[in-house]
Structures are given as C-alpha cells and as structure tokens.
User: Fold this.
Amino acid sequence: NKNIYVQDSADNEVHVIDTDSDEVIAELPVSHPGNGIAIDQTTNQVFVSSASPSGGSVSVFDGSSNLLINTLTLPGNPSFTYLDTLKGFGFLYLYAITQPAGGGSYSFSVVDTSSGALVNQIPLQGTPGGVIAEGISNEEAITNDGMSKVDFMHQNETKIHCKEQVGRGPAGMAIFAPWFNAEMVVANRLDNTVTLLLGFGCP
Assistant:
C-alpha cells in the first residue's frame, strides 16, 4: 500500500491519495471527526480513530477495496492512536490514549485488532500526548504534557514502571537506531527545547 491517507475532520472522511498519480482515488467515510490513522502493512487494513459525545471508536477499512470492514469500540475518546505488535506473541494491538466522553482522567488503552476486545487499560496522570514504540525493548513511551515527563511501560505490564524528566510541554518523539544503542529525542513545546534520552526507558 503506497497510498497517502489524509483526515478531513470537517467532512468526517479520509482522503485516499495515489502516490503514483497524485490524485484522490477514494473517500473513506467515518461517523465522527477522525483524529488518528494507523495502517497494518501486513493485512493492508486502515484504522481510523474518531471521537464523539457518546465515546470513541475505530473504523477499520480494507486498504485494497477501501470498504469499511469493522468498527472497534474504544473505552473513551481517543486523542492519539497507533498500531504495534506484542513482542513474542504476534498479536497486533491498537494502542490509544483515551479520555471519557464527558471528560476526566486519561488512560492508555490496548485493543486486540482481530477480536476488538479491550486487552488492557492503564490510568495516566497529567495530559498525555504522543506514544512511540521502542523496537526490541518491548517498551512504549508516552509524553506527558501536564507533568513534563515521559512515562515508560512494558508491553505486557499493567502500569507505568518509570518516568523520565524532560522539558516543559513534551509533545513529539523520535528514536535513532532503535535496534542498536537507542537515543530518544523529545520536543518540548513550552520552553522550545529538545531533550535527549540515552538508551531504552529509565536507568
């Protein structure tokens, strides 16, 4: 799948752009404004998360036919979603930062994409933002805007196991050489700095 997927929250749809012709070849309708797209390169399925007053959901589309094939329910409205496999098991899980439809504390929610079952839900403090997988370390990192920290959790655990102090308002993250000596950079939006974290997770 070499298509580009662009969310159009104003029209509750996703534009599918063919990278060879640079033309829009399809529109994927979603029930509510979308706020996250993830693609399973193995099955060619496209996952589009959306929020609504009654709660969040994920629309699953076939990347070949562009048809809706499933809808997954989330335990709250998503603010960020991505796909990753649980190392050693081969399950494809959808990871989402969610918040109750009426407001309240955020959670890190894990959904099995094959069954739609909620596998795990971990409460979070502050205002979590982005999420990134750390390759062979089996860890996920979550930026926490309200706490000026990055939270780390193992994929098969049920809680945050450590936190690293970073700058004010951490947002985006990136990893260099995730299969060797990893370095993570964190962009901090409130003090215009970048924090460099060496290695995987906390010491």
In short: The chain has a mean pLDDT of 83. DSSP finds no helices and 18 strands in the chain.
